[in-house]
Amino acid sequence: MRHRLRLRTAVAGALLGLAAATAGPVEPVHAASPTAGERTVGNITGFSTAGPVFHFRAGEAAARVSFVAADTFRIELAPDGTFTDPAGKDIVQRQGPPPATSWRDRGDRYELSTSAVTLRAYKKPLRFALHRADGSRLWSETKGISWTADTTTQSLARGADEQFYGAGMQNGRGSTSHRGKTVEVGVDYNWNDGGHPNSVPFYLSSAGYGVYRNTYAPGTYSFTDPVTTSEKERRFDAYYFAGNSPKAVIGGYTRLTGRPFLPPLYGLEIGDSDCYLHNKNRGERRTLDALKVADGYVDHDMPLGWMLVNDGYGCGYENLPEVGKGLGDRRMKMGLWTEDGLGKLADQVKAGQRVAKLDVAWVGDGYKFALDGCKDAYKGIEDNSDARGFTWAPESWSGAQRCGVQWSGDQKGSWDYIRWQIPTYAGATMSGLAYTTGDVDGIFGGSPKTYVRDLQWKAFLPAVMTMDGWAPSDKQPWRYGDPYTSINRKYLKLKESLLPYMYSYAAEATRTGVGPVRPLALEYPDDPKAASDAAKYEFLTGEYFLVAPVYEDADVRNGIYLPKGKWTDYWTGRVYEGPTTLNGYRAPLDTLPLFVKAGANIPMWPGIRSAEDRTADSPMAWDVYPQGTSSFTLYEDDGVTRAHREGAYAEQKLTARVREEGDITLSLDASRGDFRGKQTSRPYDFTVHMGKAPRAASLDGRELPRLESKAAFEAAETGWWYDAGDRGGVTRVKTGTRATDRPFTLALTNSADAGGVARR
Description:
By secondary structure, the protein is of the alpha+beta class.
C-alpha cells in the first residue's frame, strides 16, 4: 500500500462512553453544554415488551432494548420513530438463543433484568443506567441520548478512577488509558503518530463494561467528565457488555462480532514484500527474481514464511505457478497484493497464492467495502485451497479481526517510528484486534541501527514483514552486513523457536478474543501504573514475556516498569522483584530488554529456520522458570489446513511445582487430541532456571545420569547437566524419546533456591 493523496480524506470516528463506579440516583451530573440544534430524548410515553425485546416511546422518538446474552444487550434509538440498520448482518454474528428476561415497573423507572444485569430505564426523561445483579452500578447516563441533524451522542458519568481503552488501532496510543482524552474512530489515511487506521467503534472501561457502536459511521469519543461519545449519523445503535475483567469484556465483544481468525503457522513467520516485475526503483526484473531473494534468506540462515511478489502500484506478475512452486520448494508461501479487485483470486490461489494483501482503495467510499474486501479475500483462499484464509489490510473496521492482519500502513523508518508503534499494537488488542503490525524499519528511510532495534521487538509480535523497493536499498535483514546481519538472525531465529508459545496464544485468541500481544493494563488491571505512561513503551507477549524496546540511539534503557511478581532477565538470569522501575538498564545493540515472569513454562522448537524443518522425531523443548505451582497448555495442529475447526488438534499441559523443601516437579500430561502429522513420540528437552544444582534428577521415579560437561550432555540421549554459567544457573534435562499419549513426571530433588533470588 502506498500513500495516495487523492484518498487522504479526513474522517472522524468514535466510541461509546459510560461510567460511575458507585450506585446511586441517576441525576444529571456535570452535564455537557448543549450543542446548537441539539435535541434530547424526552419522557417515556409508551412501553411494551415482546420476549427479550423491550419497546419505548418518547414522543416522536422510539427506543428498544434487545438482550443477546445474560451479560450483553443492545440499545437502539430512532429520533423519528423509524429504526434503521445500515450495518445489517455484516458485523454482528449470529448469536445463540436470547436469555431469560424479566421486567418490573418501579414507579420512576422500568427495570429490565437477566441473571447477570439489570438495565434501568428512567421515565422522566428517558435515561438508562446499568447495574449488576448484586445492585452495583456499571454506568449511568448523565442525560438522555441527544441528536442533531447528523450526529447522535450519549453522555455518561465518569467514575473517580475509571480508565478507558479501545477504539481500535490508535497510532502512538492505546496501551495506556484514554481517560481525559478524545479519540477519533474512522479512516483518516494518517499512518503516522496520531493517526487512527483500522479503527474499531468499541471501547472498554475498567468499571467492568464495554460498548460497541453498531455502525459504519465515524465518531468522536471524549473520555472526559461526562464521557460523551458521538457518531456521525442520526440514529443510535449500541451493544453493551458486562464483564468481571477486561478480558471478559473483550470476550463479549468478539463473541458478538467474531473471534479472531487462527493464522497458519507460516503467517506467524516473517514475510517479505516487493515488486519484482519492472520495478522502477530496482531496474528491470522479472517475477521469478523473487526466488533469488528467497535464496538469500536460506543462504543467510534466516527464517522466511512467505513473500508478496507484486507489491507496488501497477506491478503485475508472470510465471505465477513457477514462482509458487519455487517458493514452496524453499519452504515458503506465495502472497499477492491487489489495488483493484479480486477477480483473478481463484486462479491465483490455484497457482499457489496463500496470502492476500489489500490496498487502501479497498476502503472505497466506506468501511463496508473494506470489510467486504477482507472477507472476500479470506474466503477466496479457502474456497480454492485447503489452506486457511490469511489477509493483510489497512483502514479496516469492526469485524476484520475475523479475516486478517491489520497493518498500520506506509511509514518511514526512524527512532520516532519505533517509539510510537510500541503502544499502537499492544493497545489494539483491547479492541479485539489480535494481529496488528507494521513493516520492519518502515518502507522509506531507515538505517542499520533502526532496522535492528525495530526487528528486535517486532520478533515478539505474531505477524510482521519487511517491505522493499521504496527505500534507497532493499530491506532484507542481511543487507547491512555484520554485525547487523548476525543480530537480526539471532532475533528471527528466536521468533521461530518461540512459535509453539505464540501459536498456543493464537489458538487462545480464537476461543477468547484476547490477542497474544497485550498492554500491561490487560494483565494487571488493578495496577495504576499499568494504565499510565509508566508502561506506555513496553508490552507483554502472552502472559510471560515483558518486552521493553529501545526506541532511541542509546545503549541504555531507562524507565522499564516491572509489575508485581518476580521477573528474570532473559539474557542474564538476574531476577527482579516487582513492582519496580529499572533505570540504566544496559542494552547494547544486540540486546532487547526482555524479561520473563516467574512461573513461566515456555514451549519451544529449538534450532529451526522454518516450521517446515520439523520432522517426526524433532524435540519439544520447555524453558521453565519455576515458582509455586504454574502450568501452560501447548496447542498443536497441522498448522496449515482448516481441519482444526472440526476438532483436529491436540493439547498438552505442563505443570511445574516447587515444594517447600526445594524440590521441583515437572508433570507433563498426555497429549490429548489428534491431527494429521501429529508426533506419536518425540524427545523432550527441559531448561529449568534455578539457584543451584539439584542433588538428583529422576524421570517417573528412575534416576537420570548426571553429565559433567556441555559436550557430554549434547552427545547423550538422556540425562541432565547443571550449567552454573548460563543465566544465573540452569539445569538442562533430556528425556529421550517418549510417547506423546502418555504422561510423565520429571523430578529435581533438593534444588533449594529454585527460581533464583530477587536482587537488584
